[in-house]
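User: We ran a pulldown and think these components assemble together. Before we commit to crystallization trials, I'd like a predicted model of the whole complex to look at. Sequences follow.
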Amino acid sequence: MKCRVCRGKAVIEVRRHNAAFCRDHFVEHVQRQVARTIHDFRMFSPTERLVLGVSGGKDSLALWDVLTDLGYRVDGVYLDLGIDGYSPDSLTYSRRFAEKRGLDLEVVDLKHRYGFSIPEAAKASRRTPCSACGLSKRYILNQVAEEGGYDVLVMGHNLDDEAATLFGNVLQWNVGYLARQRPVLPASDDGLCRKVKPLVRVAERETAAYAVLRGIEYEVEECPMAAGNTINRYKEWLNRLEDRSPGLKAQFLFGFWERGQQGFTDAESVELTTCTTCGAPTTGEVCAFCRLQAVTLVEVGRRREAAGG
Amino acid sequence: MKVILRQPRREIQVDGVTTVAQLLKKLDLVAESVLVIRGDELLTTDARLSDDDVVELRPVISGGATV
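Assistant: Here's a predicted model for the assembly, 376 residues in total across the polymer chains.
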C-alpha cells in the first residue's frame, strides 16, 4: 500500500477517505482534520485560555500533542479517580507527557478533594462505574475550568466516542441527550464552561495510530471497571458495520448534526436552576454530583464505623 | 508467529497466515478495532507476515464513561 501524497510506503489505511498514508503525511492529515474541526465549528481562538481533560489515554494525549503543534497553549487537568491498578499508571503517562513538553498539568484527587473514589461511588449509588465516573468528570472538569478562569474546556472525544453515544441515545430514544450532543457546548451564564471536542473527525484507530507514530506513551490497558461497558460494545458493533461500509460512522454522526438533530432541539428545552448545595447549574433542586457525593459519603462513613475506625 | 494481545496482555501462537488481513480474519477481528504493530512499525492489511514474526494486536477501543 502506498501513501496517497508521496507514494512512499504507507503505514496506515483510512478507508473512509479511500486513502493510505506514510508516517509524516498521516500526522499532517490528522492535524489538518483537527484544525478544520476547530475552524468549522468555531471552537476557540488562539488568544483564549484552554484547559484539556487529560486521562493518560491515547485520545487526550494525542489531542494535546496536536493542539500544541498547531500553536495553541493548552493546560491539562488530570482527575485521579482512585481506581487501583489503573489510576496510578494513567497519572504517570500524563505527567511524563507534560514534563517532556514543558506543559502545565493540574492533578485533582477525587478522594482527597471530594471524599470518595469512583469504586466507592459506584458501590454506594448502585450506578455502573462508568456512569459514576462520567458524572464526576463532567462536574469536576467544569468546576476546574471555571475556577481556573479558562474560556474553554477541551475534551478528547473522538469520532467513535460520539458515534457510539449517538447510537446508544437513538436505541433508547433519549431525546434530551439527542438535542444536546454537539461538538461545541456553549458557555452559560449560570456556570457552564464552553466545552469542545476537536477530535470528532478523527476515528479512534487514527488517534491510537497517531500516538504510536508520534512516540507518545499512553495507557493501553483498559480501565478494569469498564469491562463489558455498553458504549464499548456499541463501538465494536459500529466497527463491524464500518468494515463493510467504510465511512458509515462519519455519515451517521455528521448526518445527524447536519440533518437530524434540529427536530430534537426544537422539541427539547431544558430550564436550568442552581443546585441548592453547591451552586452549579442543574435541572433539579440538588445536582446529580452532590447527590452522588452525599450518598457515597454516608456509605463510606458507615463502612468505616463498621470496621471500627 | 507469536501474537501479543492486550487487555489483558497475553501471547498466542498463530501459524499459517501470510498477510495481516488473513491474521485478522483468522482471529475474527476487524481492522477498524486494532492496530497491528511489528517492532516499531504499523502494518497495513496487505503487509506480508512470516512465522518468525512477533506481532502485537493493540485494541483501539477505550473509554466507557460518557463525559
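Residues 7 and 63 of chain B are 13 Å apart (CA to CA). That may be worth checking against your pulldown data before setting up trials.

User: Thanks, that helps.
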